[in-house]
TrEMBL record:
The lineage of its organism: Eukaryota, Sar, Alveolata, Colpodellida, Vitrellaceae. InterPro entries: Ub_conjugating_enzyme (IPR050113), UBC (IPR000608), UBQ-conjugating_enzyme/RWD (IPR016135). Gene3D superfamilies: Ubiquitin Conjugating Enzyme. Residues 6-136 form the UBC core domain. This is UBC core domain-containing protein. It comes from Vitrella brassicaformis (strain CCMP3155). PROSITE patterns: UBC_2. Pfam families: UQ_con.
Length: 136
């Protein structure tokens, strides 16, 4: 029988990995407020991959890990405007397969890695982008 890690332990492990910079290439994450004892609201960054329309850009996101995380996916939203297929016109990430087919073993890092992968995918890599620094 598998051991189910409680939400707070899981999020503390994710926080530690994010703070140590041991995460996915081109991605960072951490708590939005250091005093958030519920470990709910996270601020994340994706650095645009080279050779794409996102190159030399920094994208800021907010991830909300509700009470059911990691059994249910978090809410993910870009704060920096981006033109990419899994993101709607308000910045909400709705079309990412990682969120649609959520698995308790996925993490915030998994989400950020998959979003960065979307940036280099053939359907997204050359999409025209909003002016740099534009927010929702």
């Amino acid at each position: 029988m598998a051991v189910v890690v409680p939400r707070s332990f899981r999020l503390l492990a994710e926080l530690e990995k994010g703070q140590k910079g041991e995460g996915a290439e081109g991605c960072t994450w951490g708590l939005e407020r250091a005093d958030d004892i519920t470990l709910t609201t996270w601020t994340c960054t994706i650095f645009g991959p080279p050779g794409t329309a996102y190159e030399n850009r920094i994208y800021n996101l907010t991830i909300i890990c509700g009470e059911q995380y990691p059994d249910r996916p978090p809410t993910v939203r870009f704060n920096t405007q981006i033109n990419i297929s899994p993101v709607d016109r308000h910045g909400a990430v709705n079309g990412l397969s990682t969120l649609q087919n959520w698995n308790r073993n996925y993490t915030m890092e998994t989400i950020l890695e998959n979003l960065r992968r979307e940036m280099v995918s053939p359907q997204n890599r050359r999409l025209p982008q909003p002016p740099e620094g534009t927010t929702y």
